[in-house]
Amino acid sequence: MTTRRGISRTIGVDTGGTFTDLVAVEDGEVRAEKLPSTPDDPARAVLEGIENLGGADEATEIVHGTTVALNTLLTGSGAPTALVTNRGFRDLIEIGRQTRPELYALHPVKREPPIPRSLRFEVGQRTWPALDGGVERVEEPSAAELARLRARIAKSGAKSAAVCLLHAYADPESERLVARALEPLGLPVTCSADILPEYREYERFSTAAVNAVLVPLMGRYLAGLERALGGGRLSILQSTGGTLAAARAAREPARVLLSGPAGGVVGAARAARQAGLEQIVTLDMGGTSTDVAFHRGRGRVQDIVRDAEVGGLPVALPSLDIHTIGCGGGSLVRVDEGGVLHVGPQSAGADPGPVCHGRGTQPTVTDAHVLSGHLSSATFAGGRVHLDHEAVAHAFEDLGARLGTRPQAAAAAVIDVARAAMRRALGVMTMQRGHDPRALPLVAFGGAGGLHAAALAEGLDLPGALVPRLPGCLSAVGMAHADALSDRSRNILAPLTEWSPTRRRRAQTELAREGRADLVTAGHRPGRIEIERSLELRYDGQSYELSVADDGTRGIAEAFHSRHEALYGWRLEEREVELVCLRVRAVVRTPEPAAPKARSRPLPAGAVTGRRKVVFGERARVSAVVDGSCLLPGQRFEGPAVVEDPTGTALVPPGWTARVTPGGHLWLARGRGALRGRSG
């Protein structure tokens, strides 16, 4: 399955707030492992899981999706970092843009920049873009000025540095000059033009600052993990859904901020292709949050954005378009002073965890499912976590008393509030993006995704819902099957008419050479590397651009007009089209064997392991309990039923039918609905 030299086994690792998921893939066989996370030392759970899967040797590649960088940024616990910029511009990362995320807030709170003003330093440097497309250096810092800068940073206590100079995207050597002057300090230095060689100073400065803040911690974490592994090759999943060598991830941790959610989208897209689905909307409900994304279905994951914000800070590196809400299985339930029920965004996490884990005291969404009969100790987290039903009952007696209702009605209300938040999130990625949800199947996964799949599909009138095989470990599955990617770009800012296909191809050839070198260094075979080319275009006078695939012809302008019209309803053919940026992606695709066709067959003997009362809405129904691990493609059964898998549980409501698709995934539809969703 792997594409790297000497690799015969791949382990995908996804560390989350509540559980750490691992999946080992070898000779087409998939083994999963799920165990509680260790927030004090995330590597401890990772190493324990790898050991449980047989350990790692030189023939093993470990693809890791980690929350270390994200949590560090969100909690503001990164390393003290120095910022070096042009004289008079040290407040640029604090001033930012004129956008206000909360237009009507009487007392808006703005996120503090990642580097405080006391650690921002200035040098005398100026570069002007020239009319011929080159640059003119007007001022350069002297050796004496750089020596004084080095001394000031040495006394500041900074453990990392970011060098961010105006117009460095056109003249990167000016930043490298400053970086070389700082080398005697022994600090890791991030040059903004190296990590993001594109215009828009605020976004470039912010991205470089975020990266520099994260480098020391991520470097220590990855180095320690590699030492502890003792064998195997370590890669990290990027926010784009592609793998990145651990050495580069340690230098550029800003590229892996959204690695966990990205792995889920990759796994969901793969499951959808096996089931014969094209355009889909995905929902990943874990312990802390729920992530929603839209996937176009043409080839691999394509919905890339470059204007992401993480914790209120712009990180202008490529990433999948993912919308996250603070609503997961571990989301805490509370009643405010006005008697209104709230779910999240605070989470019980792995410690103390939900009430049903035996340590928590405040009820969560998971506890509501336990009281409703949706979850069983025999299968929850592979049977390793005993569910404390008595503690859950007491917690909901108290909650019901505060709400003035019965405990079961309180649990149903908690589930309804959580689903309302998820419906709104799905609306953001469908209706607010111009997509008709009625044509989009839902792919629901994560440990809790299957519990809400059918209800969400019904509430939004979706064609149906797909619950993938191993739903609670699907992010790890996506990591184990992810492509290897290297993205390169070059800023242009010139009329498209000045850049003929031949001229574009010459410039893209150099970018492609750099991307190929990245993947060859990571151990991939040169013959398997593919090159994808695209352009960032806009009408002259516009502030933002659209990405258009570069087919090497002169028809690019028409392709841009058509895409602009499809998105916004109008085109300006008389207006000059501006080429903002050239982009090249080097990719090594993971082989994906075709799933065999599913023939209709009955449920096997023993698939129904029992029956129990399960609440749908506010009504309890005696429901079949189905062992999801023994289901085969082509099998079909009707609700009400609970499908229990070692990594997750799915509900099949009354009046719904479940069918096992090629690849072993579960398709849920109203009545005897056929599998559909091939939207154009």
End-to-end CA span: 30 Å
Q: From the alpha carbons, calculate the radius of gyration and give it in angstroms.
A: 26 Å
Please outline the major beta sheet. Answer: 8 strands, mixed
Question: CATH class of the domain at 74-218, anyone?
Answer: Alpha Beta
Number of strands: 34
Task: Tell me what you see in this structure.
The protein is of the alpha+beta class. Among the domains are: 74-218, Dna Topoisomerase Vi A Subunit, Chain: A, domain 2; 484-588, no CATH class; 608-670, no CATH class. Helices cover 29% and strands 28% of the residues.
Brief summary:
With 680 residues, the chain is α+β, with helices and mostly antiparallel strands.
